[in-house]
Amino acid sequence: MATGEDFQKRCRWLAEMTGWAVVFLALAIVVDAVWVAGVKRLAGFGGGDFRATVHALGVEIVSSLPAIFLVLALRSAEGVFDRMGKGVIMDAANAKGLASCGHGVIEAAIASLVITPTVLGFLRGERSLDVDFEWTYVVLLLLGTALTLFADVLRDAAAARAELDAII
Amino acid sequence: MSAQTFNADALDAVRGQAQIASLLALFASIMLIVTAVVSFFVMPAIEYLRTLRVEPALGPFWIFEVVARQFFAALPFFLFADAMAALRRALKEYGEGRFFSEVAGAAVSRSGTIVLAAMAFKTALTPTIQQSIEAASFSLRFDFDLFDLGIVAFAVFVAAVGRVLDAAAAIKAENDQII
Fold this sequence. Notes:
The structure holds two protein chains of two kinds. Chain A is 82% helix and 0% strand. Chain A is built from five helices and no strands. Chain A has helices at 5-42, 50-63, 65-85, 92-123, 135-167. The two termini of chain A are 14 Å apart. The two termini of chain B are 21 Å apart. By secondary structure, chain B is mostly helical. The longest helix of chain B is centred in the N-terminal third of the chain and has 49 residues, at 3-51. In chain B, 39% of the residues are buried. At the A-B interface, helix 1, helix 3, helix 4 and helix 5 of A face helix 1, helix 2, helix 3 and helix 4 of B.
């Protein structure tokens, strides 16, 4: 389905920008985790014990968990933008991409709210369910939920489009 | 089960979920405003009334300075609340079975745009304004992490999805007209 050339051009630009954001965020996560673990090892944290380095790396990875989920969501968003840039708006693949993006965002919000604080507490030796409550995460959770609902509607719209095309 | 029945069942499920999500969005919107007002205005005011102490670094117009600082700190919360209110409008449309309405598309676009504005204030404008008020001269300051950058990119995506929902509404209208 072809839509306005302006919208397509904007989507192509957004796909490119999202792609760069994915690369930048992924690199930042990797560098951050490796850097912190490396610096701690060089500084002799844990007496140069290899397990201490692995522990530091594990803590960094768990701390980055929400950002990792967000990167995966953005990867799906990039795919959706890419197809929209080519003029494909109403199709099952876009609905799937949208749903996958929504799920990624929900996972990122849940990771920020519960998983990361609890696992970090566990790594510190605590045995309790920790919650790091911030309204930004709740906003994110609702936006993710809304996206999955939009995906359902888009799927239906794609079916309506196919029906329309068949009639024409 | 025919495709039509499947669609009707699937959309019924979406309707129910949208009603719940709409209520949650309303709750989040109200709570965001309450949290911002209580933590940025009420609590500092109570603290001041309790101690009657003012930061020594503040000038004679300290009250304006403090109110401006608190207002800009609370602004991202108010914007997030507005974004949730816009999202609620879209979800309410879905909850009432109007899946292909222009109102929903416009509300989703608005929601994404407001989240972008909120993030701009949270990460750059509010820290810069607060720093400038504190230093009494313009000084640029950014306060963001990887997660914030991800949210910005995601908000752009939500704004674009609003346009897609608009297109979906137009196609559905065309479809209904032909059928």
